[in-house]
UniProtKB/TrEMBL annotation:
It catalyses: tRNA(Pro) + L-proline + ATP = L-prolyl-tRNA(Pro) + AMP + diphosphate. This is Proline--tRNA ligase. It comes from the Bacteria. SUPFAM superfamilies: Class II aaRS ABD-related, Class II aaRS and biotin synthetases, YbaK/ProRS associated domain. One of its GO terms (cellular component) is cytosol. GO terms for molecular function: aminoacyl-tRNA deacylase activity; ATP binding; proline-tRNA ligase activity. Catalyzes the attachment of proline to tRNA(Pro) in a two-step reaction: proline is first activated by ATP to form Pro-AMP and then transferred to the acceptor end of tRNA(Pro). As ProRS can inadvertently accommodate and process non-cognate amino acids such as alanine and cysteine, to avoid such errors it has two additional distinct editing activities against alanine. One activity is designated as 'pretransfer' editing and involves the tRNA(Pro)-independent hydrolysis of activated Ala-AMP. It comes from Ornithinimicrobium avium.
Length: 581
């Protein structure tokens, strides 16, 4: 690649809409260009890096027996209707109509298409196990496309799907993918953690995420040094949650309950709640009663979710759930439960008020509620409102409510030690889907005994375009991008300086030698550009080794500079290739 002809324009100024340094640099260095919010064009250098990430992912998927294919991004509505995702995805999918008024969508992920294709082509256990994958463009109308490629509305994902006849087969396929992901993220050079993950809209059971440790990550995870336990905070889920019969829940408002506070005014804590000295929540005074967890629906309506005991009772929440009949829960009276059957099914342990880890909050959620937010309200004996926002976070459609504020130092669920918190970027996600999709779309095969059995599936994603951004974010410095060799758009950046024809001729020969020895080269052969500008551009582009051919030639040397460390040394021209290799 010669900079005199390469389709590249570097920028001195940061793009106005860029939030993160790595993103600013990718735009300034001419790797990508924004076309619309969350939608990017890949310019030649950017595409080279993207292809390198793809190659690593492809090699590791092939190594575990994955077979590559490619599905369209433009998909019919029906399969997504059959699995419920046409509506479940809400505003997050791009829907469109064709000229005959038919409904289509731009695929956010492809479980449905893979399942249907396998169903069409396979019919026997003998054809399984099977792993298929694609590296393909996905579309999600993200609410907050952010940080460029990190959260695109159009982005590139590797998605693979495993098909097995039994649970042991699925477990093996899952473990193969897990091992392949370890290799992929090692090769990409990430500092990453593997965390238990929430399975979200996918359903299914076992699920882990690969998070690149990064302060700019949108995910928060907890880790326990002692046991190695690590989980996305979203996944520190309380497993007891069970669906509540929605039809049994009257449309009630808390105002209907005489003892309960109204909830329309957000009143700050009264003296019934005392901040704890260690800053972790509040201690409730004896006088506090009627603690209610409120659910606010997206449309602004509210309903009570659970009630609890005053926070200073020394009661273990598990025992409370098992042994204390709801009717005994002070200070609610029987009539209150009659009015709110839902309330009888939930409770708040003392932890809610900060006596222990707030991660232990347990309650049940109406399964018809797909999203919302919750908060806690209560009243002391004088009828004052006591209020504080304890939960802030989303509910999942499967009826579980995720733990809220887990704090640094909280005990890990396995009891092995304290938790530490950090942020990460979700780079990959592996799921044991089970039979959810196969059942919905009727994917069955004949087993050894000639009986029809439903296939069990896994789904596995890697954010390929996100990886480019995450590497840029993790490796850049204040002067530019700083690629690891395996992902850099070239191995060497050769700069010819000055106006002397002989210098350019020598540089040309050196470039030829470097390429002949298998290295890829960016050659700054621009005749009328000052050395200062050339050096700045070389630093901005971030190729790991920079070779300067210039004044040193009179002594028969060139300068070799390491982009990351800034270390430079003069070496004889004849030894330059060997030094770079
Ligand atoms: P996130 O939590 O960041 O929204 P997700 O859990 O919705 O991601 P998955 O459905 O698990 O994403 O998709 C598999 C992988 O695709 C993710 O692990 C991530 O690396 C990548 N990915 C998801 N959404 C985006 C996006 N909007 N832009 C770029 N990459 C994405
Ligand atoms: Mg998402
Ligand atoms: Mg996620
Ligand atoms: Mg995910």
């Amino acid at each position: 690649m010669r900079l005199s002809t390469l389709f590249l324009r570097t920028l001195r100024e940061d793009p106005a809409d860029a939030e993160l340094p790595g993103h600013k640099l990718l735009v300034r260095a001419g790797y990508v260009r924004r076309a619309a919010p969350g939608i990017y064009s890949w310019l030649p250098l950017g595409l080279k890096v993207l292809r390198k990430v793809e190659d690593i992912v492809r090699e590791e998927m092939d190594a575990i027996g994955g077979q590559e294919l490619s599905f369209p991004a433009l998909l019919p509505r029906e399969p997504y209707e059959a699995t419920g995702r046409w509506t479940e995805y809400g505003d997050n999918i791009f829907r469109l109509k064709d000229r005959k008024d038919g409904d289509y969508l731009l695929g956010p992920t492809h479980e449905e298409m893979f399942t249907l294709t396998v169903k069409d082509m396979y019919s026997s256990y003998k054809e399984l196990p099977l792993t298929l994958y694609q590296i393909q463009t996905k579309y999600r109308d993200e609410a907050r496309p952010r940080a460029g490629l990190l959260r695109g509305r159009e982005f590139i994902m590797k998605d693979s799907y495993s098909f097995d006849v039994d649970d042991a087969g699925l477990e093996a396929a899952y473990q193969r993918h897990r091992a392949a992901y370890v290799k992929i993220f090692d090769r990409l050079g990430f500092d990453y953690v593997i965390v238990y993950a929430d399975s979200g809209a996918m359903g299914g059971s076992a699920s882990e995420e690969f998070l690149a440790v990064s302060p700019v990550g949108e995910d928060t995870f907890v880790r326990c040094e002692a046991s190695g336990y690590a989980a996305n905070v979203e996944a520190v889920v309380v497993p007891q949650a069970q669906p509540v019969d929605a039809s049994a829940v009257p449309a009630a408002h808390v105002e209907d309950t005489p003892d309960s506070p109204t909830i329309d005014t957000l009143v700050t804590r009264s003296d019934a709640l005392h901040p704890r000295a260690d800053g972790r929540g509040w201690t409730a005074a004896d006088t506090l009663k009627n603690v209610v967890v409120m659910l606010t629906h997206p449309d602004g309506s509210t309903e009570p979710l659970a009630i609890g005991l005053p926070g200073d009772r020394e009661v273990d929440d598990k025992r409370l759930a098992a042994q204390v009949a709801p009717a005994e829960w002070a200070p609610f009276e029987e009539k209150d439960f009659a009015a709110y059957p839902m309330l009888t099914k939930g409770y708040i342990g003392p932890t809610m008020l900060g006596l222990e880890s707030p991660s232990k909050i347990r309650y049940l959620l109406d399964p018809s509620v797909a999203e919302g937010s919750a908060w806690v309200t209560g009243a002391d004996e004088h009828g004052k409102h006591v209020y504080d926002l304890v939960l802030g976070r989303d509910f999942t459609a499967d009826g579980t409510v995720q733990a809220a504020e887990i704090r640094e130092g909280d005990p890990s669920p396995d009891g092995a030690g304290p938790l530490t918190l950090a942020r990460g970027i979700e780079m990959g996600h592996i799921f044991q889907l089970g039979r959810k999709y196969a059942e919905a779309l009727d994917l069955k095969v004949l087993d050894e005994n000639g009986k029809l059995v439903t296939v069990t599936m896994g789904s596995y994603g890697v954010g390929v375009s996100r990886a480019v951004a995450a590497v840029a974010e993790a490796t850049h410095d204040e002067i530019g991008l700083c690629w690891p060799r395996e992902l850099a758009p070239a191995d060497v950046h050769v700069v010819a300086t000055g106006k002397d024809r002989a210098v350019f001729d020598h540089a040309e020969l050196l470039v030829g030698d470097l390429e002949a020895s298998g290295l890829s080269v960016i050659f700054d052969d621009r005749p009328k550009v000052s050395p200062g500008v050339k050096f700045k551009d070389a630093e901005l582009l971030g190729v790991p080794t920079i070779v300067v051919v210039g004044r040193g030639l009179e002594q028969g040397t060139v300068e070799i500079k390491d982009r990351r460390t800034g270390n430079r040394r003069e070496v004889p021209v004849g030894r330059a290739v060997g030094e770079v290799l």
